[in-house]
Amino acid sequence: MSTDTLQPLPMATSIEEMQACCPDILGEAISEDEAIVAARVFKALGDPTRLRLLSMIAASEGQEACVCDLIEPVGLAQPTVSHHLKVLLEAGLVARERRGSWAYYRLRPEAVTAITRALGA
After folding, report:
1. What's the CA gap between 95 and 64, in Å, rounded?
2. 3-class SS at 58?
3. CB contact at 8 A, 42 and 92
4. 64-86 tens-digit pLDDT
5. What is the value of pTM for the model shown?
6. Is the pLDDT assigned to residue 1 strictly greater than 60?
7. Mean pLDDT score, 93-104
8. Overall CATH class of domain 3-118
């Protein structure tokens, strides 16, 4: 299956699957399914704006940020920022909570752990 046609996994399973599948992708061969899950996460991280957004969320108090606070620093319109955050959400890297008309995004620490483990770091 091409990574360009991947369908998003439910947030609750993508990182958990990656943790189970990828103790060290540099140390042993992984299955096709494991590679699909890992590719989805790395594809989400393959965009500079998404990397910046993820780092901004991680650096925010409580590792949480309102989408309204992320718009100006990246210099993009709200719909574009929301799209990038949705990609991070679907990859399981962040969690989202609605508060009134705004969405707040929180870093999922287990996602960072899974990425670090996958890289063998």
Report:
1. 9
2. helix
3. no
4. 999 999 999 999 999 999 999 99
5. 0.72
6. no
7. 93
8. mainly alpha
